[in-house]
Amino acid sequence: MRGFLKKLLLFAAIQLAIAAVVIWSYRRQFPPSQHFLAADIDKQSLIQTQAAPRLIFIGGSSMAFGVNSARIAESCGRHPVNMGLHAALGLKYMLAEVQPHLRAGDWVIVAPEYQQFSKLGGNTEFLVNMIEIAPAHGRFFTREQWSGIFDSGFVKRFGRQLRAVAGRPSRLFDRGTIGKTRPYYRRDGFNANGDVVAHLNVKPPRMSEREFRLRHDKASVRETVEVLNRFADVAKQRGVRVWFSHAPLPQPVFDQNRRAVDELEATLAREVRIPQLDRAEELAFPYDHFFDTWYHLSLRGVEKRTELLAARMAEQGKAFAEGSSQHDEFHH
């Protein structure tokens, strides 16, 4: 029995040593402080310090790679806070990290990617990655997300680290290789407003995604609608105005999924207590308006989407100013 325990302890020690080497090498090659997701640290700082009046953008990477937030905010006399980061974090996380920082007078644009209507809780591995970058991110997770993290998230995350290190043994002692081939996937690829700008003057690589199938699952859509409405109710109580905007898609991809998109759009218009700034088809752009995925816009796409949202927010700003003027005249 004693011999068995010694062998068991030796085996466990070897496994722990291997795990320690893998994690050490991975963090050395891909420092958490330089990671694309580490931009959330800067975004959290921005949303706490940006001057009023503010225009806050919520979404995944389609928002991070998809707008000139300063131009849109300027159109309605506001200061930008682009909280867009990554769709895999899930809509629940996106809303949860913004909600505590809402102030009276804020304006918010929510533009979730289409997969948020089927998996709004996020990818457990990405949530673990957020904890690696800053443990404080865990305060935005729900009980269900924590359950998923302990169930599979840590295993998936270590698996990715093991594959990255074991698959490139010659780089075991390399330092700071993150983003060398794709500098726009780094923390410093963002500007001070939270927009990714490092890709704007880069020749778009070949699109990595072509197939997209939107599945209109009524139960998942209903849950997403409830989450959006709860956020809208909290915002209203705090004197915050919220609008919904659609995520971009290539025109051919949109056409392939038109029936499901139309069904989803009708559901949102009927059940979500947030006014829509645009129609889904207005965000269907040519392929050459996209960078490397169907959610990441190239410079042409960013400019087109920005002008659309800037025009719509200018209308909202004008209506708000006229309403305030009429209100002042009434009370005088």
Describe the structure.
The protein has 332 residues and is of the alpha/beta class. The chain has one domain: Rossmann fold (3-Layer(aba) Sandwich), CATH 3.40.50.1110. The protein has eleven helices and six strands. A four-stranded parallel beta sheet has the order 2-1-3-4, sandwiched between helices. The radius of gyration is 22 Å and the shape is globular.
Q: How would you describe the shape?
A: globular
The H/E string reads HHEHHEHEHHHEEHHEH
Instruction: Give the CATH architecture.
Output: 3-Layer(aba) Sandwich
How many beta-strand runs?
Answer: 6
Widest sheet, order of strands: 2-1-3-4
How many alpha or pi helices? 11
Q: CATH class, anyone?
A: Alpha Beta
SSE order and pairing:
Layout (H helix, E strand, L loop, with lengths): L1 H28 L9 H11 L4 E6 L1 H4 L4 H7 L3 E4 L8 H8 L8 E5 L12 H10 L9 H24 L51 H20 L3 E4 L4 E2 H6 L1 H14 L12 E2 L13 H33 L1
Parallel strand pairs: 1-2, 1-3, 3-4, 5-6
Task: Summarize this entry quickly.
This protein has 332 residues and is an alpha/beta fold. The protein contains eleven helices and six strands.
Descriptive tags:
two-stranded parallel ribbon, single chain, 332 residues, 6 strands, Rossmann fold, disordered C terminus, four-stranded parallel sheet, 11 helices, alpha/beta
